[in-house]
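Practice problem 4.
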């Protein structure tokens, strides 16, 4: 455990030199990490896909709890990130034989505006790519898209995939209401298997809210009655505008209903 000012990685670390790594971002409520097991399972899956050894669950849990405590965040909400890279190697792509680099950080969670503006970006997700569905540290495409969105007055970019179907945000999954029905892109679209997305789908099934995982054209988001983003940090975040086009319902009834159910879930279960 070291102060941020003293934390260092090798210039030959593969996460730094070639973006060879994965990560998880989760939220802790009053010092308690939420959905810890689901985040660990996704980290293990991501590590397997890039052929990197993942931390065991108890080490994952301990490092998160110790980092929260070291930052005195037990009485507030916190943003926690665990990063796993391939460790030190040559300056090219070949892997070294050393242990992975594992880093955990924790900072206070930042409040967001009640609703978010999004912008559909001109670049696509490759649903057939090697990193499809992996929470990778290779983040260049997301950074460019985020800068594009912010230059157009939006806080989150939205990607189509190579087939022209709605896929995901740079840091979020997306849901929309169309003709009264709730829709979200399927995992086959190339979107990240979001933890909050998964929990929202489970809440829909539990409370008999019809929801469809289906391929829709990216233009369907502009035509939606209401829409919202999901992520561990944002939870359920209403979309107000798509490419400067206001949605008619913000927040809409589905967004409000699911937001209420999700908050109850957080209060009732630390690790649902």
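Answer key:
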């Amino acid at each position: 455990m070291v102060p941020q000012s003293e934390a260092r990685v090798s210039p030959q670390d593969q996460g730094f030199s070639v973006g060879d790594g994965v990560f998880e971002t989760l939220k802790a409520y009053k010092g308690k990490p939420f959905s810890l097991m689901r985040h660990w399972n996704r980290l293990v899956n991501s590590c397997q896909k890039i052929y990197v050894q993942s931390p065991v669950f108890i080490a994952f849990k301990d490092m998160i709890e110790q980092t929260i405590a070291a930052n005195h965040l037990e009485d507030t909400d916190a943003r926690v990130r665990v990063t796993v890279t391939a460790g030190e190697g040559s300056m090219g792509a070949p892997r070294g034989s050393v242990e992975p680099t594992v880093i955990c950080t924790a900072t206070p969670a930042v409040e967001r505006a009640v609703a978010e503006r999004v912008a559909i970006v001109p670049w696509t997700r490759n649903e057939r790519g090697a990193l499809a569905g992996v929470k990778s540290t290779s983040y260049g495409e997301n950074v460019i898209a985020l800068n594009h969105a912010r230059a157009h007055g939006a806080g989150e970019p939205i990607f189509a995939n190579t087939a022209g179907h709605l896929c995901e945000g740079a840091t979020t999954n997306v849901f929309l209401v169309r003709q009264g029905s709730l829709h979200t892109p399927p995992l086959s679209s190339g979107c990240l298997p979001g933890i909050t997305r998964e929990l929202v789908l489970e809440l829909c099934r539990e409370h008999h809210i019809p929801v469809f995982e289906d391929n829709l054209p990216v233009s369907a988001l502009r035509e939606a009655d209401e829409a919202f983003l999901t992520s561990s940090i944002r939870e359920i975040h209403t979309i107000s505008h798509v490419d400067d086009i206001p949605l008619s319902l913000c927040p809409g009834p589905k967004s409000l209903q699911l937001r209420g159910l999700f908050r109850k879930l957080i209060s009732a279960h630390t690790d649902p």
